[in-house]
Amino acid sequence: MQHLDVSELRERQLDGDYLLPAYEDWCFSRIPGTVADLLGADVGPRLPDAATDEYDDIDRVVVFLVDGFGLAQWDGERERIPFLRQFERAGRVTPLTTVYPSETAAAMNTFHSAALPAEHGVVGWYVYDPDSDEQFEALPFLRKDGTRPERIDFEDVADAESIYPELADAGIEVHQVTPFPNDGTVAHPYDPEDLSTFSGAFSDAAHEASDPAYIFAYLPQTDAVAHGEGVDSDEYRETAVETFDRISEAIERLGEAASDDAGQTLVCLTADHGLIDTERERNVDISAPPFDIVSDLQTLTDGTPIRYSGSARNVHLHLRPDRIDAVYETLTSELDARVLRKQEVLDADLFGPNPSETFEHRLGDLVVVHRDSSVWYGDEDVGKLDFLAMHGGLHPDEMLIPFATATLDSLCE
């Protein structure tokens, strides 16, 4: 059941063909505060009461985050995956928007800090940081050539503090079942290339956690396969089936680990963003005519053009001051896209209100959000233009995500 109708949220947030983040209420950014509140702590804004008002006396919260499994993917796969229908019967599915950009690096920094992208400053998968004269992938903190940035520390990628020390101070034990550890939590790593390793890692977390506890499990496999194969592919469907089989097993392990005198466990399923399938032949190479944009870009101090900022659905262009207007005119005349000047982005709170100095420094002079295609540099990174399923923009299927909740007891009945 849904206490917030998706059509209501969609209608409220639509701006033409683009769907804007609902930062003020029904947003992914409020999940961390909601989890903390259920366990008796305060780390930031929470979702409206209607999202969790029927859940009382919660001693353990478990969040499964399936990367790239947005509301459109949930609706598309629910007939093939009985577990999704079972979850709907046992609890509720509340639609949310994700943050902008609708991509993992920005969203996961929000998830771990409760800070919006405008605050933490991770503007996309790629970040250009003028203060350190570096351009790099925020995840996994590498330059395009595979080397590690030398003039900025990983701790400075996001201008925000983790929520986990606050949870620990409130007596909440945090366990994470992810391919990589997170400071301030008990790590249970698994091999993302082998989903069979997830079950053992999760079982360890379920048995070792002492209430009040928060267990977070991250599964990136659906997103990874979608980029190459698309969401309307056998490979994507097979990966989604296996992913939710593993989640179903994990919930069984939770039931086995629960003692007779244990309190209520709330199980949540969500996503950092959804996906859209692009048409490869329509994806836009801005290093080719009529754009030829590389010569218009600012450069690092060594003369390297600043290409890597944002992503192919959230392109940040750091331009020579004398070329901003000309590039803007070309892009707006040639693309079915929103091309926003820096001040327009700030005025619209697209990345959230209260922009930090870090964010303002990293924000492009122009931000390009195509309606339904990728926009990137084909001369050096053809791979991005060859990706089929993409995310990062403001298409409703990228922006709308599920926040599904059910008690462990109702799921195990």
UniProtKB/TrEMBL annotation:
It comes from the Archaea. Signal peptide: none annotated. It holds the Pfam family Phosphodiest. GO terms for molecular function: hydrolase activity. InterPro entries: Alkaline_phosphatase_core_sf, Phosphodiest/P_Trfase. This is Alkaline phosphatase family protein. It comes from Haloferax marinisediminis.
